[in-house]
Amino acid sequence: MCSRVCKNCGGTDIDVDQARGDAVCMGCGSVLEDNVIVSEVQFMETGGGGSSAVGQFVAGDASGRNPTFGEGFYTGVGRESRAQTLQNGRRQINTLGHQLQLNQHCLDTAFNFYKMAVCKHLTRGRRVAHVVAACLYLVCRTEGTPHMLLDLSDLLQVNVYVLGRTFLILARELCINAPAIGTYHLPPILPVFLL
């Protein structure tokens, strides 16, 4: 029920249905409004605990321009996405790092490298698993663990050259000097004389 007046019959018994988006006169059955646009803004809670507006913004003056809510209105969307990216990266670093039997210090350092890569937009266009593996390998090189890039390649079932390329890009862009792989001193092969 609404306090509107029907233009056809003058009746005041008008049914407004927000779900259908129309207004109908109950006296003569005339449709007075069709596709009523709701003027209030509704928000929905997202999975990460944030909120987002429901529906589509339409300008009130029918100019076609979207209304603006100030500079800070959409900033939460990027932060929420970044938080999810970091959370996903931490989870994958922990999973892969535990398979390599790395200690918590190495996992934390790898996550710091991953955060730096996200801040410098080095994750765009690359698979998260490849960036995570490159960050873990950076830690292996800087901490001197006995792991090789081939170990990570085997765990992820990814071409070692693809991981190597990602590793080199991260090392260069993050300005991390990854030391060369240590050479192990093997005993010289002694000639065996057969008598």
Automatic annotation (TrEMBL):
Q: Which CDD domains match?
A: CYCLIN_TFIIIB90_rpt1
Subcellular location(s): the record lists:
Nucleus
* Pfam families associated with the record: TFIIB, Zn_Ribbon_TF
**Protein keywords:** Metal-binding, Nucleus, Repeat, Transcription, Transcription regulation, Zinc, Zinc-finger
Q: Which InterPro entries match?
A: Cyclin-like_dom (IPR013763), Cyclin-like_sf (IPR036915), TFIIB (IPR000812), TFIIB_cyclin (IPR013150), Znf_TFIIB (IPR013137)
Q: Which GO terms describe its cellular component?
A: nucleus; transcription factor TFIIIB complex; transcription preinitiation complex
Which domain of life does this protein belong to? Answer: Eukaryota
Protein's GO biological process: transcription preinitiation complex assembly
**Molecular function via GO:** RNA polymerase III general transcription initiation factor activity; RNA polymerase III type 3 promoter sequence-specific DNA binding; TBP-class protein binding; zinc ion binding
Q: Which residues form a coiled coil?
A: none
Q: Where is the TFIIB-type domain?
A: 2-33
- Supply the SUPFAM superfamilies for this chain: Cyclin-like, Zinc beta-ribbon
Q: Which PANTHER family does the record cross-reference, listed alphabetically?
A: TRANSCRIPTION FACTOR IIIB 90 KDA SUBUNIT, TRANSCRIPTION INITIATION FACTOR IIB-RELATED
The family this protein is said to belong to: Belongs to the TFIIB family.
| Protein name as catalogued | TFIIB-type domain-containing protein
Taxonomic lineage per UniProt?
Eukaryota, Metazoa, Chordata, Craniata, Vertebrata
